[in-house]
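S1.2 Input.
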Amino acid sequence: MSGRTTLLLMRHGQIIQEPTGPDGSRRYVGDRDIPLDETGRAQAREAARLLGGGCGSLPLPASLPIRLPVRLAVSSDLSRSVETASLALTGLASRNPTPADSGQGDICLELSREPALREISLGQWQGMYPAEVRQQYPGQWEARGADLAGFRPPGGENFEDVAARAVPALTAIARRLAALGPASGGRADEDSAGEDRTALVVAHAGVNLAILCRLMDLPLQSALALPQDYGCLNVLVWNEEWQHMAVRAVNLLPAALGPDWARVYDIIG
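S1.3 Output.
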């Protein structure tokens, strides 16, 4: 039986909330580097609970409800994603001895930062309220709503641009995950095809939505119709033989998931 190769594509936790405008709207964030707030950090810790602090085949305390074979961790290079990933991996890092200490082989996690997963840039609109955009850039707010895939704010990106950089980056992560050797201290020449392996990938709403639309063959125009809450998880499955990624679940909220969630979504057997 071949092992499962799963990517947990996560949105970062909630960020510091800026004051709302007179109409209740918020400023456009884009790729401004706004940090997490305390709610966002709590959301990241909920993800740590789901990961279970497990890596490869290391023994874990019996009190942990699940044990995920997390072998790879990647985040956007923006601080809100880096901190979310770091907090989500806390339990893993505390239970992963170095190869020198354990003799277990290459099982220690390091967080990689991937600029291709950074949030969509909204250019000159960033930091502005929608009402300000409509006033200073007449017709552009409506034009973007009519063409999310193709319209670029001045100095910014569209969803086609985001998909063009994010999907290849995620595919490369999946291939890297699938190519990892045995986690249990076996020899490099041993067959590890039967091992389950998981990657945590932390990015942003706009990036995740572009990826999900591409993987589900949905038009990018419908991206904002998909839910992508702060701290949510999307379960993606990589088929090495077909070189294909599929979506198993979207917008799972860690606080709502039970102890057997990883088996329910076929991440582990």
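S1.4 Remarks. Confidence is low (pLDDT under 50) at residues 54-64, 94-107, 186-191.
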